[in-house]
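batch_manifest entry 22 of 60
target: MFS transporter
source organism: Prescottella agglutinans
requested by: lab member K.T.
priority: normal
notes from requester: please return tokens only, no post-processing; we will run our own comparison against the previous entry in this batch. if the run fails, retry once and flag.
--- input ---
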Amino acid sequence: MSLRTNDGPDEQRVGEVSADANDRPTRYWVRTLLILLLLTEQSALGFSLFAPTLPKVAAEFQTTQVVWVMTAFTLSGAVASPIIGKLADLYGKKKMLVVTAAIGALGALISATAATFPILVAGRFLSGAGFACLALGYTLIRDTFPARLQPISISIANTGVGAVGVGALLVAGVLIDHLGVRSVFWFAFGFCAIGAILTFFFVPETPIRSHARIDWLGAVLLAASMFVIMVGLSRGKEWGLTDGRTLTCVAVALVGFAVWVWWERRTDEPLIRLDLIAKPALRYTLIGGGIAYGATTLLATLTPMLLQAPESTSYGFGLSATEMAGWLLPGQLMIVASGFIVGATAKSIGFRNHLVFGAVFIAIAAAVLSAVPTVPVVIVLAWVVFGLGCMIYAAVPNLALLALPETERAVGSNFVGVAQTLAGTLISTIGFTVLAHYVVATDGHGVAYESAGFRSAFLIAAGAAAIGALVSLAVPRIKQAASSHAH
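--- output ---
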């Protein structure tokens, strides 16, 4: 299959690709899809696989800044994804999928062998490139698979993201309990490396190319501003919230964001199309959905830590990582089911209501965990409610599609994805900043907190989800006839 640049209508080139694809047997495309699934699940794996590692990482490195294991991954993913997407348009989606997976493997290798916590975080920052794999996989399916196999293939890839979240907790639990916390990073290394090799040899490249300029300055400004504000927040307890260093970080970040907004509005091909915020449907979807998504990120990080905390604390259950995964399994299954619920009730309920109800369920779950964090059955049931609330994962992208004309849907979806990820990063950092104010001890068993710390952090998640629900009420109602086309 020869590679060509953008020299004709997309429809014509896609037709040529589809005609060529129809000559290959179905088993070829099944094999290709299975290979792609190894990489499209990187964003889900990068979170679900590593949330259970936080107590052990905190114990090994004697740090209260363990949230950086997650936020480094999400921050780099949010900034890198749009850049990698444009590079894929320029040089080929398969090629960039392989490169991205290789970067993810390198990051996992660095983390697995890290002698210090900053090096481990640096590895996680590189691993964040894996966020782009999902979008690259979708576009490869669209550009290379036969038309008859595209819908089912994309559905399988989308469903796989939720299913991986279920399996990742169990896999991480078994690895941590039997081989140690480093084995999780080695597992991620092998997963990325094998996926990259198989993709290189067995996945077809798309001939579709487009010319685009990459907004390197916008990416640097956004990443630097987010990094500085996160440093200021995470060091708030150590420095003091009114300390000159903390205030300097906040001031520098605000100036950085202002310059970034100015630049994004000025440049011809921005990292993020900020002008899309002018559309009320997208604006309120972005704000409401982003804040609610941030609450899910904080909850998904805090709850495994709570369950694995030693019984000697006033709140912990002393569960092994495997036992913790078992407790959360019903809720993880509900997360998968929530996607199907959204699809089945799209016309009768509407994506706007899915977003509002989902945020409310998340707020309820977080509030219950804050009020009653020591009763096992309550935690399990609260996690099931949380899983139902995760219907926002399916509702938000569908609302973004319906809010924009077809020519702007890809850009708008990218915008919402970046906003969600950045919101999750910021809200998690705020939650852990509050939690850090309640540290009792740091020893070989990890970091011990006062129970009030977890209660306060869960309340932050509840408040964020409640605000997300209120903002989502402002999303204009869209004719449900259109919703049948969004899955």
